[in-house]
């Protein structure tokens, strides 16, 4: 091992706890190789079977991965390690956070009429008014909404769906590059990630076909505003993906994360309208109503609804009715809806302005929808650090990639008039003379 950290323990539980402590403390970094089973067993004076059991438990919990003859190593995103992004340096513009422009969010939340007093809503967990609003929200875009429920945001919802549907070791097809928190979530649940390449129209049919043939039992994808690449399903791509799913060797749970439904700037072509047996469409309001409103809606098939709500009853029980009322009043407030419409238009203009400025300078970039632009580069660290010296803070693509090419993500939501040209010029300066001909 490259590190001086000494794994200890006389039992499988003790060894696993020792490795976990090393990861938490930073002594065992992602990619660090653990000792071969027999070597560690000899050093600790225990049986190889005990070490093998410890390594199996660590794999189940997403802390380590095994690469066949390459041995067992600390996972790229171990479930117990902090994956928070680095703090934004002082004096720079933050284009890394993926956040909406505060100017387009309600300045004050409406005062709830409900009291947060002592009561249980397990028997009636959803406010009828918000359920009606959510159903209309879905039906506006043609998504079936017969079976509908609520959750505490997209990650909470996806985690519950995967945990009740799959078992440790099962494979999940994931966008590559994709949303880093989802990429971290899958191994944390003890599941195996199968990367699916994306382009400007979302996940690629050939990549999905390969993932399903390799045994993926679930697919998590974004039909628009794909993060970080910005792709969105065209009508033609939607049909091609449905053909692939129809020919899948086994039943697949398709989870669509439509996280930016109201500000994506493009129409929805959802897989859920294609007669899938198992499906779920998740929507949240954090991008257009406020990042602190941890509420999401889930439309799905009957079986998925029963499994999701059955697990929720045993955990959080329901989503706060005070939160539900707040969301409901915002969704029906004319002033707030005017802000959302203005945000949708502004985000599209700002994203398209940066793409145009980059294209004019010979820099290939991607951002067909949503709030982000993905720029393929040769050296992520050099670009991040170079732009920092010019007053811009962007996200290195390593957090979003499994096997995809390197790049950086720029959130364009907060760019003002004239910023796109300055940013594009600064990027070209960082990339150097050879970079303008480089695409991806």
UniProtKB/TrEMBL annotation:
> Is this entry keyworded Secreted?
no
Q: Which UniProt keywords apply?
A: Aminotransferase, DNA-binding, Transcription, Transcription regulation, Transferase
Transferase in keyword set:
yes
InterPro entries (UniProt xref): Aminotransferase_I/II_large, HTH_trans_reg/aminotransferase, Tscrpt_reg_HTH_GntR
Q: Which GO terms describe its molecular function?
A: transaminase activity
Which Pfam families does the annotation name? Aminotran_1_2 (PF00155), GntR (PF00392)
Domain HTH gntR-type positions: 9-77
* Protein name listed in UniProt: Aminotransferase class I/II-fold pyridoxal phosphate-dependent enzyme
């Amino acid at each position: 091992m490259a590190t001086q950290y000494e794994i200890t323990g006389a039992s499988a539980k003790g060894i696993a706890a020792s490795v976990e402590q090393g990861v938490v403390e930073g002594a065992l970094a992602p990619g660090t190789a653990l000792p071969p089973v027999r070597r560690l067993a000899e050093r600790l004076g225990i049986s190889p079977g005990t070490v093998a059991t410890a390594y199996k438990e660590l794999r189940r919990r997403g802390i380590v991965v095994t690469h066949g003859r390459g041995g067992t190593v600390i996972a790229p995103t171990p479930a117990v390690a902090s994956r928070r992004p680095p703090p934004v340096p002082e004096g720079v513009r933050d284009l890394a956070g993926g956040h909406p422009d505060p100017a387009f969010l309600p300045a004050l939340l409406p005062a709830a009429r409900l009291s947060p007093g002592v009561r249980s809503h397990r028997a009636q967990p959803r406010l009828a008014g918000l359920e009606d609003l959510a159903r209309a929200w879905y039906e506006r875009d043609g998504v079936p909404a017969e079976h509908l429920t609520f959750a505490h945001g997209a990650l909470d919802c996806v985690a519950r769906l995967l945990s009740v549907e799959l078992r440790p070791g099962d494979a999940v097809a994931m966008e590559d590059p994709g949303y880093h928190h989802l990429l971290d979530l899958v191994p944390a649940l003890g599941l195996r990630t199968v990367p699916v390449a994306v382009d400007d129209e979302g996940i690629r049919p050939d990549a999905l076909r390969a993932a399903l043939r390799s045994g993926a039992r679930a697919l998590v994808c974004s039909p628009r505003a794909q993060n970080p690449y910005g792709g969105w399903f065209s009508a033609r791509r939607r049909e091609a993906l449905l053909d692939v799913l129809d020919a899948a060797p086994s039943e697949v749970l398709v989870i669509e994360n439509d996280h930016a439904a109201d500000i994506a700037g493009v129409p929805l072509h959802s897989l859920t309208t294609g007669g899938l047996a198992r499906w779920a469409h998740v929507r949240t309001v954090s991008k257009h109503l406020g990042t602190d409103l941890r509420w999401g809606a889930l439309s799905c098939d009957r079986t998925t609804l029963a499994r999701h709500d059955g697990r929720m009853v045993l955990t959080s029980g329901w989503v706060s009715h005070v939160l539900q009322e707040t969301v409901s009043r915002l969704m029906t407030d004319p002033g707030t809806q005017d802000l959302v419409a203005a945000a949708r238009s502004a985000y599209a203009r700002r994203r398209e302005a940066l793409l145009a400025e980059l294209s004019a300078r010979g820099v290939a970039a991607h951002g067909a929808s949503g709030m982000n632009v993905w720029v393929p580069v040769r050296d992520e660290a050099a670009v991040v650090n170079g732009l920092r010296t010019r007053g811009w803070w962007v996200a290195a693509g390593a957090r979003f990639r499994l096997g995809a090419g390197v790049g950086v993500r720029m959130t364009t939501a907060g760019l003002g008039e004239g910023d796109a040209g300055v940013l594009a010029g600064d990027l070209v300066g960082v990339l150097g003379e050879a970079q303008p001909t480089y695409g991806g």
